Amino acid sequence: MKKIPPEKLNQIKKLITESEQILLISHRKPDGDTLGAMLALFLALKFQLGKEVFLLCADEVPEHFRFLPNFFEIKQEIDPEKKGIDLVITVDVAVKALLGLDDLLLSIFSHERKTINIDHHHDNSSYADLNLVLESSSTSEIIFHLISGLGLKVDSKIATCLLTGIYTDTGSFQNDNTTPETFRIASQLILKGARLGLINRNVFRNKPISRLRLWGRALSHVQRDQKRGVNVSVITQKDLEECGATLEDLEGVVNMINAIPDTRATILLSEQEKNEIKERLISTYTALGM
Prior knowledge:
Blueprint: H1 6-18, E1 21-25, H2 32-47, E2 52-56, E3 74-75, H3 80-83, E4 87-91, H4 105-108, E5 114-119, E6 130-133, H5 139-149, H6 156-169, H7 180-191, H8 196-205, H9 209-220, E7 223-225, E8 230-235, H10 237-243, H11 253-257, E9 265-271, E10 277-283
Parallel strand pairs: 1-2, 1-4, 2-3, 4-5, 5-6, 8-9
Antiparallel strand pairs: 7-8, 9-10
């Protein structure tokens, strides 16, 4: 990834220094990257800079991420006015709609408080006062550089959070977004005490039977375009209900489908609440010829 531009780093440092009450927000239906990046930044700002930091996510933390340090600090509701929030930082959120906080958006993004948007998605809409959007494996990779750039220490807890984000967003270093820089940062995080075994056990090994049933359903629904090497599967709300699973249980299954030989891309469509459809896409090759 490109390094954080010095001017932008100084702007972020100034905003953080001038703020006392900081609100960090992840996207709804949180994954390992948004949680790991947000919690790492929380630990650095709260315990090294002494800021009062609040954490907000529209949905509860999935059970398999509840090993992350201080996950219990993440709340589903907050009143920015009562808390006196003067700085809002969104983490791994490409567009405001992904926050899932419709009733709070006007209050959160009022002109009276500054906002920072930190993300790695190329389609980020740059909706904040200050937007740090860089091409990288994950937002956690950006947060690693940000914490270091602010002159703060990456301790074992922060390292575990950041490695969780990188490990999950790269599909355990198997996806095309994995770069030499990703491995360099991951090795530094392990040297700093990141608990790779703990991450692997919770995220990839320990799977409740409801999740395995859902994965079986997703696998049984796979349709394949043999000529293009493209796999497509669909999961409906009925599938979730019958398996006793949630949408969070789909995390990881697209990587398994993508393991079919000669696959160039895998698309998983899942029916969300309110009749919305979410698409998960993993591409093995840059050009799909579609």
